[in-house]
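Students often ask what a holo structure prediction actually looks like on paper. The answer is less mysterious than it sounds. You provide the chain, you provide the ligand, and the output is a string of discrete structure tokens encoding the 3D arrangement of the protein together with heme C.
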Amino acid sequence: MLKTITFSATFLFLAFLTVQCTNTESKPKDDPTVQNPSELPKTEADDIKRGEYLVQILGCNDCHSPKVMTEKGPVPDPNRMLSGHPADEQLAPIADKGILKGYALFNMSLTAAVGPWGTNFAANLTPDDTGLGNWTLEQFGKALREGKWKGMDGNRMLNPPMPWQNYVNMSDDDLSAIFAYLKSIPPVKNVVPAPVPPAS
Ligand code: HEC
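The corresponding structure tokens follow.
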């Protein structure tokens, strides 16, 4: 009887060891014994990396980051990345308002745009309370794919030039990767001004 118990216990222990050794989840990506790293489960770090890539190729920085001038031209200000139109930036006055009937004007950083729709300011996408700090993934999806301000039903639609129509078919995976990345960047306190309706 004792023998049987010892045998069963040894067998269970060996089975446990086998499961542990074949459990791919516990293998890091740089483990040379992993044949195909892309088949490993996604980690949060993978999401953040992919989110960063997507934000770059989708051009979110174009409008959402103040710029600094470099030898290569304007680039996103690394200290205020994705923090939206700076609250303290005064827009240059427009001498001939009539021009707005046929044109859209941008400030130098592209964070503010004036057109027939009024003046709109790119939002703070950093994880500060003045940005996406309190946002849920669900809200983010409603803003990006349905164009709802603050990602809430019943709110106004997002104004131009936020190109949310381009993102209506964004996959859940891409959406959550972008959100994970935005939640991982340094928070920047910046209360973006409210839109100004067109002058009548
Ligand atoms: C061409 C300029 C432009 C680009 C490119 C752009 N945005 Fe925007 N975005 C804006 C502007 C302007 C607003 C504010 C619109 C408003 O107030 O109605 C905005 C608003 C938003 C909002 C809503 C914020 C809120 O408080 O409701 C989110 C979220 C957002 N953008 C995320 C993104 C992401 C992510 C990308 C890249 C995938 C992106 N935007 C690309 C200009 C842009």
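Residues 58-60, 62-64, 120, 122-123, 125, 143-144, 149-150, 158-159, 161-163, 178, 195 surround heme C (CB under 6 Å).
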